[in-house]
Each structure stands twice: as structure tokens, then as C-alpha cells.
């Protein structure tokens, strides 16, 4: 009976007609094809960076995003797991982490079943056991650094800032940048910086860095580690989106996209019934589309998925996938307007 009740509610919601009116720079990503629920192969979320507290153990691997009290299950490649375990001095010791990857739905059974989503790591940008409380620190640009001798290099507005130990910072204009999936090269008048995507440790800290660095400047060579900028450029989607039904079924819809990549859909009813609440996650698919996946319906495991296309302060979904079945959303789809001030 409970399953039938949930299914009946979903069928009503799928016929909703939304007719409210609204009251260092990284290189530009390669344009992505338009995603559609009818073509699963078109739904391929690009990676993004997530910062937060990381805990790794034999039966739990989690990340709590900065500024959030929600946890995601963390799926690490085997190549990283033992390296991360070597950083800690006790089981389940908190670490500060910056990981690059994407979100996937949790399984219904298994260790990840109680979590909103799984964050599947493609690459580690930075992990450290030294001072795990780093969420309040300012965001930073790409930087490289090393020791023996000590040196550091950062980026700012088309320039590189090179700081050798005991000397003044030297600022040089950046002439050319070559970005590839596993390597980056930065050229300037008297040298170049090369970054290669592979695990790096500077031997003087309990930390893992995601890139190895080689710097040639003023006819001198330096080696060390590097991290990429830790900003998440997809957070421009964050905000509250709403629609109100004006025909025979009197309820309103609110979608909240949070900066920790969790999402909440709330259905409020004009007759005073208790609201229906779904929770899940969101992530960008391309410059114009986001994927919103609900993994809990009234706290019960139920997976539904919508792909919204954004345009001029509103987002529109034409279809919804519930389980393995795709339903069209009638009357032009579900149109949600971004709340003013977001």
C-alpha cells in the first residue's frame, strides 16, 4: 500500500504545469553535448572539486563538504587508499581534503546505502593530516612549491609570482598556457613550469599533492609538488527555485540547490497537508544543464532523476526518470524560477 501511495503521488507531480512568474582563471571547458534522459550515454558529468573533512577507514570512507553537516560516501581509487591510510596515526583520523570527481547515486544495500550520494574520486588535489580544520582558509589559485631549496610559485591575473627562499618575489608575465588532461605547461619570458598529474609528496609534511612540478627559471631548475585552484566554478547554480500550480491540484514546488551539492525538493499543499520532501544531490552536466537526483522520498530510498536546462533565471525539466522508467512531464515540463536575491 505504501508503494502505491508513493507512485500515485509521483504520477500527479509528473503532470504538473508550472506557470508562476518570477518576482586564476582556469581555461574554459570543452563544450559538452546536450544531455537527455532518453540517451543515458549523453549523461556524463564532468568532474568538479570538493573540499572538506575526509575520513578513511576499513568500513567507512566519507567526505563532509566545507560549510556542511552532510556526508557523502567517498569512493577512492585503490591507488590512493593505502597512501591516504599511511597519512594517519589512528583509525578514522580526520583529514582535510580537496578531491576531484563526480557524484553518483548510492546503492540500496552496502556501506554507502545510508548516504545521500557517492563522490567518486578521479583525482586527489590535496590531502593532509596536518591541521585538518582548513575550511575557513581563503580559496587559492594554482600553485607549485618545493624544498631543497625552498621555493614557491603562484598565479595572478596573467602573471606568475616566483618566490625563492630568502629573495624578493619576482613577477613575470605569462606568455602561453598548454592544458591537457594529465599535464599542464606554462610559458613565460625566462622559463617554463610543467605540471604532471601524479601523486607527489614533498617529504616534509604528512600530505599528498595531486601534481608533480618542474620549474625552469633564470636558467635554474627546481622540482616539487603542485595543487590546482580549489574553486568550484559550478556553484553559480546554487539557489532556491520555485513554481506554483494554479489549476485543479493546489500545491507548490520548491527546489533548493545547496553549495555542498545536496538538493531538496519540497511539495507544499494548499489544503494544509504535510509537505512531501525529497532529498538528493545535484551536479552540472554542461554550461546550460544540471542533473538533479533525488535518492530519498520521505526518508525512504527511492531514486528519481531530472535534467534541468537553464535560461534567463529559470530551469526547465521535460521528463523525469523514476527507477528505470521515464515519464514525460505534461504541459511544457516543470519550469522553476530562481528566487530573487540568489
Walk me through this protein's architecture.
The protein has about 350 residues and is mainly beta. The chain folds into three domains: about 110 residues, Beta Barrel (Lipocalin); about 90 residues, OB fold (Dihydrolipoamide Acetyltransferase, E2P) (Beta Barrel), CATH 2.40.50; about 80 residues, no CATH class. It contains two helices and 23 strands. The strands form two sheets. Strands 1, 2, 3, 4, 5, 6, 7, 8, 9, 10, 11, 12 and 13 form a 13-stranded mixed beta sheet that branches. An eight-stranded antiparallel barrel has the order 14-15-16-17-18-19-20-23. A hairpin with a 2-residue loop joins strand 21 and strand 22. The longest helix has 12 residues. The two termini are about 40 Å apart. The N terminus is likely disordered.
**SSE ordering:** HEEEHEEEEEEEEEEEEEEEEEEEE
> Class of the largest domain, according to the CATH hierarchy?
Mainly Beta
Envelope shape = globular
What is the count of DSSP helices, taking H or I runs of 4+ residues? 2
Q: Which band does the percent of strand residues land in?
A: over 45%
Helix content: under 10%
Name given to the CATH homologous superfamily of the largest domain: Quinohemoprotein amine dehydrogenase alpha subunit, domain 2
Structural class: mainly beta
Low-pLDDT segments: 1-26
Please tally the β strands and state the result: 23
Could you say how many structural domains there are in total? Answer: 3
What is the distance, rounded to the nearest whole angstrom, between the alpha carbons of the first and last residues? 40 Å
Q: What's the alpha carbon Rg, rounded to whole Å?
A: 23 Å
Main sheet overview: 13 strands, mixed
CATH-defined architecture of the largest domain: Beta Barrel
The whole-number mean of residue pLDDT values reads 87
CATH topology of the largest domain: Lipocalin
Amino acid at each position: 500500500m505504501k508503494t502505491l501511495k508513493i507512485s500515485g503521488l509521483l504520477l500527479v507531480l509528473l503532470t504538473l504545469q508550472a506557470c508562476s512568474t518570477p518576482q586564476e582563471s582556469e581555461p574554459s571547458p570543452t563544450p559538452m553535448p546536450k544531455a537527455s534522459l532518453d540517451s543515458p550515454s549523453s549523461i556524463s558529468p564532468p568532474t568538479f572539486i570538493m573540499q572538506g573533512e575526509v575520513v578513511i577507514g576499513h568500513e567507512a570512507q566519507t567526505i563532509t563538504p566545507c560549510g556542511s553537516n552532510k556526508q557523502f560516501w567517498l569512493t577512492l581509487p585503490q591507488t590512493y587508499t593505502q597512501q591516504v591510510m599511511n597519512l594517519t596515526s589512528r583509525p578514522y583520523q580526520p583529514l582535510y581534503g580537496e578531491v576531484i570527481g563526480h557524484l553518483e547515486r548510492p546503492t540500496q544495500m552496502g556501506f554507502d546505502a545510508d548516504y545521500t550520494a557517492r563522490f567518486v574520486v578521479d583525482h586527489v588535489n590535496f590531502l593532509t593530516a596536518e591541521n585538518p580544520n582548513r575550511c575557513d582558509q581563503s580559496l587559492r589559485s594554482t600553485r607549485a612549491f618545493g624544498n631543497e631549496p625552498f621555493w614557491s610559485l603562484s598565479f595572478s591575473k596573467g602573471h606568475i609570482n616566483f618566490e625563492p627562499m630568502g629573495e624578493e618575489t619576482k613577477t613575470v608575465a605569462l606568455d602561453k598556457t598548454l592544458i591537457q588532461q594529465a599535464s599542464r605547461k606554462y610559458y613565460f619570458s625566462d622559463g617554463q613550469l610543467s605540471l604532471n598529474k601524479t601523486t607527489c609528496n614533498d617529504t616534509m609534511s604528512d600530505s599528498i599533492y595531486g601534481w608533480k612540478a618542474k620549474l625552469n627559471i633564470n636558467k635554474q631548475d627546481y622540482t616539487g609538488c603542485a595543487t590546482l585552484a580549489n574553486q568550484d566554478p559550478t556553484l553559480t547554480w546554487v539557489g532556491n527555485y520555485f513554481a506554483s500550480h494554479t489549476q485543479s491540484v493546489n500545491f507548490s514546488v520548491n527546489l533548493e540547490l545547496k553549495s555542498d551539492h545536496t538538493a531538496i525538493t519540497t511539495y507544499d499543499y494548499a489544503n494544509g497537508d504535510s509537505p512531501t520532501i525529497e532529498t538528493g544531490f545535484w551536479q552540472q552536466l554542461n554550461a546550460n544543464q544540471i542533473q538533479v537526483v533525488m535518492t530519498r522520498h520521505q526518508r525512504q530510498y527511492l531514486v528519481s532523476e531530472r535534467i534541468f536546462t537553464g535560461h534567463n533565471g529559470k530551469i526547465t525539466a521535460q521528463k523525469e526518470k523514476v527507477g528505470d522508467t521515464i515519464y514525460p512531464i505534461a504541459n511544457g515540463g516543470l519550469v522553476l524560477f530562481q528566487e530573487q536575491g540568489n
